[in-house]
């Protein structure tokens, strides 16, 4: 089976399973609508779904870019300075013990009801995975490379820029791939806590009015967007790594 | 090239654990000194101490150049792993030192050096597309580009097949002529071919081993070199 056939077959199987559960279980539509009904809603409510999806996408992309830049900069800072590692790393690890979800209400208070608080939420949720994946890769630079650079008379800053960062790019890329999946979760949680736009807001609204079909339609749009975002980030990372290091990129 | 000799006098430890026995070694200027010995007696540590990158070890003693000037900035290193950056072309790898020092890389000289080791056709390729021997030649080119009077070699040919190893030995001996070279090796044949001076490092100290007087690199079937190789093997066969 080719890859496309496999995807098609598995989608068909999932839809059939879904329909079977609805039919055989005798589910009322407000508990679990069938796939056809959801597809119909997806079409009839396309305007409202598109408007809200657009907002969520902007939040996710902004969070992804900011989180990537901030996480990348933090990782380089930590790798460059032993003092920074001692001061900041325990704090970073501790911050992971705080569920980011629990911060959503206060973020809404600080950054407002609009996109700001959702972007910060997405940023926070991806910040640690990006930082930690890139930082670990930076610290794994082979010691003989660093020794050679020192014998050549390199300054620590040039060793970082010319050797450590390029050698750690695959690690940064895997952090970004994870981030592409996490960022939408952050934005949606932000929207649940307080928003007047976005797919998270739409899902909550639909749920409250027992418009389960609209809820599912929004969920599917969100899932498809996340899959596409992950694929896009993956492709961009691969292309960059291939260009900078021949066929050597194994990730 | 005005290469200085080296005088190594002392021992090394990590914390309280000795990693190099007390030794005194005089490395003649502009010559090849080959260092043999079992694994774990501190041969690589000694090279790292000379290069000034053995942060983990404490040197109780001194390593000095015979001309009295500091060693920093006068050393180049080449190891078993060619240490080529996989994201750089061969030319860029050869010019890595200049980039790391913030100097303007001399492309003409890099091309010239690459030609001298027969890699002109591979200048724009990435390291992973080259054979093991070609990669080691690229490492030699990078070492030549650095143009340092003292060169430290840490088993540079041990991963190569027999023929490539012999050719690399000859090429390296030729291109590094006039420099002070210290080579760590596990191969008595290599030491007998390339050593103006041969020393065996053990857990208790260092001993000089007579080397042939003829200039390096010696021919593969040079009788004197073969005799030295035999004596070295007999010596290594004994318990330390």
Describe this structure in words.
The complex is a heterodimer of chains A (251) and B (240). Chain A has helices at 3-25, 35-44, 46-80, 82-95, 100-111, 115-139, 143-151, 156-193, 199-208, 212-245. Chain A starts with a helix and ends in a 6-residue tail after the last helix. Chain A is built from 10 helices and no strands. Chain A has a single domain (34-245), classed as MetI-like fold (Orthogonal Bundle), CATH 1.10.3720. Chain B is of the alpha/beta class and 240 residues long. Chain B folds into 2 domains: 1-74 and 150-240, Rossmann fold; 85-147, no CATH class. Chain B has 8 helices and 9 strands. A 6-stranded mixed beta sheet of chain B has the order 5-6-7-3-8-9, sandwiched between helices. A 3-stranded antiparallel beta sheet of chain B has the order 2-1-4, with helices on one face. In chain B, helix 4 (107-116) packs across helix 5 (132-146) and helix 5 packs parallel to helix 6. Chain B starts with 5 loop residues before the first strand and ends with a helix. Chain A binds chain B through residues 144-145, 147-155, 158-159, 162-163, 166-167, 169, 244-248, and chain B through 48, 51-53, 72-73, 75-77, 79, 81, 83, 85-87, 96-97, 99-102, 126, 128-129, 146.
Task: Map the helices and strands.
The complex is a heterodimer of chains A (251) and B (240).
Chain A: H1 3-25, H2 35-44, H3 46-80, H4 82-95, H5 100-111, H6 115-139, H7 143-151, H8 156-193, H9 199-208, H10 212-245
Chain B: E1 6-14, E2 17-27, E3 32-36, H1 43-51, E4 58-65, E5 75-79, H2 90-94, H3 96-100, H4 107-116, H5 132-146, E6 150-154, H6 162-175, E7 180-184, H7 188-194, E8 197-201, E9 206-209, H8 223-237
Parallel strand pairs in B: 3-7, 3-8, 5-6, 6-7
Antiparallel strand pairs in B: 1-2, 1-4, 8-9
Helix pairs in contact in B: 4-5, 5-6, 7-8
- Biggest sheet record of chain A: none
| SS field, number of helical segments of chain A | 10
CATH class of chain A: Mainly Alpha
Mean pLDDT of chain B: 94
- CATH superfamily of chain A, by name, is MetI-like
Strand content of chain A: under 5%
User: Secondary-structure element order of chain B, as H and E?
Assistant: EEEHEEHHHHEHEHEEH
Q: Which oligomerization state do the chains in this entry correspond to?
A: heterodimer
Tell me the CATH topology of the largest domain in chain B.
Answer: Rossmann fold
What's the CATH architecture name of chain A?
Answer: Orthogonal Bundle
End-to-end Cα distance of chain A: 25 Å
- Tell me the overall shape of chain A: elongated
- Helix share of residues of chain B? 25-40%
DSSP summary, beta strand count of chain A: 0
């Amino acid at each position: 089976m080719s890859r496309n056939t496999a995807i098609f077959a598995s989608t068909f199987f999932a839809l059939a399973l879904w329909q079977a559960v609805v039919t055989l279980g005798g589910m009322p539509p407000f508990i679990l609508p069938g796939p056809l009904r959801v597809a119909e809603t997806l079409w009839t409510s396309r305007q409202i779904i598109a408007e809200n999806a657009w907002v969520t996408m902007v939040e996710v992309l902004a969070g992804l870019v900011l989180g990537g830049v901030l996480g990348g900069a933090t990782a380089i800072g930590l790798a460059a300075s032993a003092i920074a590692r001692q001061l900041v790393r325990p704090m970073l690890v501790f911050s992971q013990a705080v569920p980011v979800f629990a911060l959503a209400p206060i973020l809404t208070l600080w950054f407002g009801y609009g996109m700001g608080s959702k972007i910060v939420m997405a940023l926070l949720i991806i910040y640690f995975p990006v930082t930690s994946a890139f930082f670990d890769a930076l610290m794994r630079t082979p010691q003989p490379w660093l020794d050679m650079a020192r014998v050549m008379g390199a300054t620590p800053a040039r060793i970082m820029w010319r050797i450590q960062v390029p050698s750690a790019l695959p690690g940064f890329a895997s952090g970004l791939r994870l981030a592409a999946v996490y960022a939408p979760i952050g934005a949606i949680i932000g929207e649940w806590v307080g928003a007047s736009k976005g797919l998270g807001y739409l899902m909550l609204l639909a749920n409250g009015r027992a418009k389960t079909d609209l809820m599912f339609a929004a969920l599917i749009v969100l899932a498809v967007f996340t899959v596409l975002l992950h694929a896009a980030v993956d492709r961009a990372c691969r292309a960059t790594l291939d260009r900078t290091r021949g066929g050597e990129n194994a990730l | 090239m005005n290469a200085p000799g080296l005088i190594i006098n002392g021992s090394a430890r990590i914390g309280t654990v000795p990693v190099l026995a007390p030794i005194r070694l005089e490395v003649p200027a502009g010559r090849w000194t080959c260092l043999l010995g079992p694994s774990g007696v501190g041969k690589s540590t000694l090279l790292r101490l000379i290069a000034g990158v053995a942060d983990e070890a404490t040197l109780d003693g001194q390593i000095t150049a015979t001309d009295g000037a500091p060693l920093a900035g006068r050393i180049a290193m080449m190891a078993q792993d060619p240490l080529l950056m996989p994201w750089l072309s061969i030319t860029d790898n050869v010019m890595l030192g200049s980039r790391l020092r913030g100097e303007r890389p001399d492309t003409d000289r890099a091309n010239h050096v690459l030609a001298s080791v027969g890699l002109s056709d591979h200048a724009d390729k990435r390291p992973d597309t080259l054979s093991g021997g070609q990669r080691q030649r690229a490492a030699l080119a990078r070492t030549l580009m650095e143009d340092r009077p003292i060169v430290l070699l840490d088993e540079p040919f041990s991963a190569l097949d027999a023929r490539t190893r012999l050719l690399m030995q000859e090429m390296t001996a030729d291109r590094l002529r006039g420099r002070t070279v210290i080579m760590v090796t596990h191969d008595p044949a290599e030491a007998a071919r390339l050593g103006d001076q041969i020393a065996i490092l053990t857990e208790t100290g260092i001993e000089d081993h007579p080397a042939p007087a003829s200039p390096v690199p010696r021919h593969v079937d040079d009788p004197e070199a073969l005799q030295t190789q035999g004596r070295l093997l007999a010596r290594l066969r004994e318990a330390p």
